[in-house]
Amino acid sequence: MITPRLARFMLAAEARSGTVLGPLETCVLEAVLRHDQAITVRQIQRSFPDLAYTTLQTTLDRLYRKRVLVRSFRGRAFAYEARCPPEEAFREHLSSQVRELLKESGATTAVLSALVSAVSREDALLLSELDSLVRAECARLKGRK
Asked: Is 17 in contact with 67 (CB distance < 8 Å)?
């Protein structure tokens, strides 16, 4: 089952790599995300008893080549983990989508207005949070000049 967390991570991963993740890649990625530290093929194989070691090894390597996972040596084997936390990956993906929308539409006021309108319909607290984020980013940008 694809959880919302996994779905957000997959969207970001697919945007970063420019390719869609296959069903096995999705299952293996989900297993990797369940661990809070890097995991080897041998360790992840416990979650996939019907799959050959080499199949999992190839799948993890594909996820690494698609820049979804990073790897490091642990003894004589590679250990794999997510390139970044799912929330950060989703934020990156969403930011790139909004930048693209702003660039393509030329109607920045309409896009931003729609965002504010969508947020304010949901919750006044979200609107306050958006306001705080905007103010903090403005202060950061002014400090850079």
From this structure: yes
